[in-house]
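lol ok so funny story. i was supposed to be doing the assay writeup but got distracted and ended up predicting the structure for this chain instead. priorities right. anyway since i did it might as well share w the group, maybe its usefull for someone
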Amino acid sequence: MSVITINDRGEHTIITKGALDNVLGICSNLQSGDGIHPLDAPARIEIEKRFSEWSDQGFRVLGLATKIIDGQHAAYSHADENGLTFTGFLLFFDPPKADVQQVIVDLAKRGVQLKIITGDNQKVARHVAEAVNLSLQGVLTGRELNDLKDEALWHQAEHTTLFAEVDPNQKERIISR
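and the output, tada:
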């Protein structure tokens, strides 16, 4: 998601936040304590390492990027989202409710099979599943889901507890089987 801001000097800045892979994919620079530098392979590795560490701890991690742009556009478009400068991360932590483990036990006693379907990355989703003692029978990502025909998904869904990194259309595909 991107927004355009205008400061008191009339400069237009695009500010983009979103899934880290998507944000890094439109960045060519990195802002650090000593200025702006090209976003090279070692910097990407460090960014991805931080992302992985925070995800393993259960944080939802988004990337943040900016770019000063020409303010003369009549309308902005997706094409403006390129050559941005990666400026950092947004971290969110939403721990499970205290009584959720008992709810899961109660549901299982009633024969309810619980599944997690989320847009969060699979490391965060796994962390949540572990935190609530949900036994994982299988994990399927949105990328893997794209490669499955409906019949294969229907079969796979029976044996999958966790669907991660899925978009709204994929969520609909999963639940409408």
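The two ends are 30 Å apart (CA to CA). The helical segments are 20-24, 41-56, 100-109, 122-131, 142-146, 150-158, 168-175.
back to the writeup now i swear
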